[in-house]
Amino acid sequence: MNDWAYSTEGFGRSSHRIDGVETVVYEIGAGEPLVYFHGGGTYHGFEWARDFADKFRVILPYHPNFGESGDADFTSLDDYVIHYEMLFAALELEEFHLMGASMGGHMAARYAAAHRDEVERLVLVSPAGLKSEAAQLPNFAEISHADTPRLLVADPAWLAPYWPAEPGAEWTARRDREMRAAFATREDPAETHRRLHEDMAGYEGPVLLLWGSDDRIVPTEFIPEWQKLLPRAKVAVIQGGGHLLLDEFPEARLAAKEFLGG
Q: How remote is the C-alpha of 69 from its chain's centroid?
């Protein structure tokens, strides 16, 4: 079995050197631009984006230190926000929809807060970044490779092609690289909570909070915290949905697409 089970057939690929960092961007479709910030792993690809291609130009950059993009000495989400400011200028993007999941949701919220005039509609899929007295994120250092799928998806069989039981050296090296990058951007939880509340104060753009009811990474107990931050946000909870919500559940893709006007 190929370690990289996802397909990029039908996607365009471009590479951009942004402040010395090679950044790979995939695109599919035509229409209003929709940028997606992926979460802490790229092993499952982005084939879900095909469902948006009839209405949107879906722009899927690999973050520096992830996937096919190059290495960068980034130690905070602020580094990524600055990087994307420069990338979007290179892509000549002035106004666009923005969607992000998990770590990418936190990143998308931070970007939208700093660039309110650019982001038309914002979709946050089980975003990280806030604290909750009712729940906390799991400690991945204590979770084995074999046990991880049950936390990521509703049906581990769905993830099996993308999460090999006995991964090869290439898959393992890429996963380890992405895990190191994800952990490097983790800031003090109290500080990220404070920063989000400070930076997003008064945010008036349309927002969808999209969650899976059975998310075991960022559980639904975090929704009230995001509602405090974004009281005007629309909330959609997909019954039975797990953490890789857009990938596994067509209902989630439909909810996001309808919110974006597709």
A: 16
Q: Which amino acid is at 21?
A: V
Per domain, the residue ranges of the chain are 12-260
Predicted TM-score (pTM) of the model is: 0.96
Q: How would you label 201-224 residue by residue, b for 16+ Cβ within 10 Å and e otherwise?
A: eebebbbbbbbbebbebbbbebbe
Work out the number of other CB atoms within 10 angstroms of the CB of residue 174.
19
- State how far the Cα of 243 lies from the Cα of 159, in Å rounded to an integer: 11
Residue 150 to residue 48: CA distance in whole angstroms? 20
* Class of domain 12-260 (CATH, top level): alpha beta
Q: What angle do CA 7, 12, 16 make, to 5 degrees?
A: 115
Q: For residue range 29-42, list pLDDT tens digits in order.
A: 999 999 999 999 99
